[in-house]
Amino acid sequence: MTAESLIPEVPLALMGPSPLASKLRSQVARLADSIAPVLITGARHAGQADIAYELHLQSARHIEPFLRYDLQHQNADVLDRALFLGSSSPSGLELLGAGTLYLEAIDQASPGLLQKVTRYIDDGSVLGANTYACARILCSVTGDELPDYLPPAFLRAMRCPTIEVPPLDDRMEDLPAMVRRYLSEVSSKEGVSQIDTLAMQAICDLRFKHNLLGLRTLLREMTLDARAHGQNTLHAYQVRPAARKLEALDDIV
Length: 253
What we know:
Shape: elongated
Structural class: alpha/beta
CATH superfamily of the largest domain: P-loop containing nucleotide triphosphate hydrolases
Number of domains: 2
Helix content: 40-55%
C-alpha cells in the first residue's frame, strides 16, 4: 500500500497570531482525541493536510501510522483494493491498525469507495467500544461543505465535527510566522535560516491564489537561489523571480 506522502512537507496552517490561526489551534486541540471522523473544508491547498496531520499528532494515536491519500490525483479503484481487500494478506486498514487515515478530496472518491468508507464508519469500528482498535477516518473537501450529490448514507455518516481552513489571503498577518517556521524546518538541509526585512515585506505584499502551495513554492525557489549563491539569508530581490514560478501552478493543480 502506498500513500502520496505520509506527512505534509512543512506544516504551516496552524502558525501565526491571527484569530483565525488561534481558532484552528483550538479546534484541533478539542477534536484531536475524539473518536469521531472529522471533515476538513476550505479552499484547495489552504492547509487541510496540515490540520489532519496535527489532529493525528495531538491524539493518543500519534505513535501509530498516519496515511494520506489524495483522491483527486490517485486512482480510486487502486485505493479501494489497497484499503479494503484483504484476501490472503491483511488489508491496508488492518495494517494501519489504530492509526489515522486521511482521505483528501473525498468528493472525488468512487461510489464503491464511499460505500465502504461509510460502512467502516457506521459498523462500530470507529465509533464503537474498541475506540482505538481501528483507524480513525479524516476527510477533506474543497469548498465549505460536502456536495449534496454524494450518497445519502455517506453524508449521514459524515455528520461530524468540521474544521474550516481559511484561505491564506484572509490571514496575511500569519505570513511572517509561517515563513519563519518554513526556514526553521529547512535550515539544517538547505543552510538558509534568515530572511531580511524587505524580503518579508515583499512576500506579505503578494497574494497567494494557491494558498499554502503557493507560499511553499515561493519559499522553496527563494531558498534554492540563496543556497546556489552561498547565502544563508533570503533577500527582497529574490521575491519577484520566485513569484513568477507561481504562475505555473495553474497548469498542475
